[in-house]
Design brief:
With about 325 residues, the chain is α+β, with helices and mostly antiparallel strands. The protein folds into 2 domains: about 100 residues, Phosphorylase Kinase, domain 1; about 200 residues, Aminoglycoside 3'-phosphotransferase, Chain: A, domain 2, CATH 3.90.1200.10. A 5-stranded antiparallel beta sheet has the order 1-2-3-5-4, with helices on both faces. Strands 6-9 form a two-stranded antiparallel sheet. Helix 4 packs antiparallel against helix 5. It is globular. The chain starts with 5 loop residues before the first helix and ends with a helix.
Length: about 325
């Protein structure tokens, strides 16, 4: 799906909103896209005459680097998490039909707080890491998230994560690329030990953690949430850090992992595999970005390939 123009969405969304009880007088006064990432399309909507001054419209993408997208599944995750100690936006409405806006969508609470990357002194690194640890150690069965448990074992969940990326690579015409193919082969035959099934958010980037007064008051972007090995989340941070220029080092020596180990109370081993997995995925994502955005992402293909080569040597040694 191409990104819809605001001029097209505003009247259609306003018409839909006015069919909902208690919102019949609501008028859209402000409407702008929340930039960043490759998530479902996200808009902040300012309203007059309704119960809320601002809401979030989360509109499902048709194509993108993390396809397939499912905004209704994400909303279901949020509804479950509202009953836990993880602060997430309230789900106000969901719409499964594409008739109103051209795709399914959810309407969420707007949490008026900056993300960690923009919060300045309002942010706190230890609080951020502690919240990630809280996500990963959540009693997901007790929270009603069994519907995310699509795989019978930690190993099956890891193999499914590999296969999901391989399918995207095939769909985007890069599965036969020697570096991509080698990555799949090495990662598939060297699965790490110590895997467990836990809740992983899918993107623990600091931009998804909202802060006020040194506390995390919102965790957003749950479209890739899964019951899988939580180390998959940590591997993303490690891989992205290297592409942004961080030195190559033992993952356990990084500030995030040191603080995370303190929060969960035990060593976190085998992170080299998860770093390699994400560098492999980011190489595939580079191709998807070219297809869907018409240009390179912020990192270069050769940069990702070189980092992946080093990571694969580490995993296979």
């Amino acid at each position: 799906m191409e990104v819809p123009r605001a001029n097209d969405l505003v009247p259609r969304f306003e018409d839909w909103l006015q069919t909902v009880g208690g919102w019949r007088q609501a008028r859209v006064e402000r409407f702008h896209r929340v930039e960043g990432g490759a998530s479902n399309l996200t808009y902040r909507v300012g309203l007059a005459g309704g119960p809320r001054a601002d809401v979030v419209l989360r509109l499902q993408r048709e194509r993108g680097i993390f396809e397939p997208y499912d905004v209704l599944r994400e909303a279901r995750v949020l509804v479950a998490l509202r009953r836990t100690a993880i602060p997430v936006p309230e789900v106000l409405f969901v719409e499964a039909s594409s008739s109103a806006l051209g795709a399914p969508f959810a309407v969420l609470e707007w949490i008026d707080a900056p993300h960690m990357g923009a919060a300045g002194p309002e942010a706190d690194f230890r609080a951020y890491v502690a919240m990630v640890a809280r996500v990963h150690t959540l009693d997901w069965r007790g929270a009603g998230l069994e519907f995310l448990a699509a795989h019978p074992s930690p190993e099956a969940a890891l193999r499914a994560a590999l296969e999901a990326v391989r399918r995207r690579a095939a769909a985007w015409g890069c599965a036969a690329d020697p570096t991509v193919a080698r990555g799949f082969e090495i990662l598939s035959r060297s699965l790490p030990g110590g895997s467990t099934l836990g809740l992983r958010q899918g993107d623990i980037n600091v931009f998804n953690y909202l802060f006020r007064g040194g506390r995390v008051v919102g965790v957003v972007d749950w479209e890739q949430a899964a019951i899988a090995d939580p180390r998959l989340d940590i591997g993303q941070l490690l891989a992205l850090a290297h592409l942004k220029g961080a030195p190559w080092t033992d993952p356990r020596s990084t500030p995030f992992v040191r603080e995370y180990e303190a929060a969960v109370g035990h060593p976190v081993l085998g992170l080299e595999w998860f770093r390699a997995f994400w560098l492999w995925q980011l190489l595939v994502i580079h191709r998807g970005w070219e297809l869907f955005a018409g240009g390179e992402p912020w990192y270069g293909r050769s940069q990702a390939a070189a980092a992946l080569d080093r990571a694969l040597q580490e995993v296979s040694s």
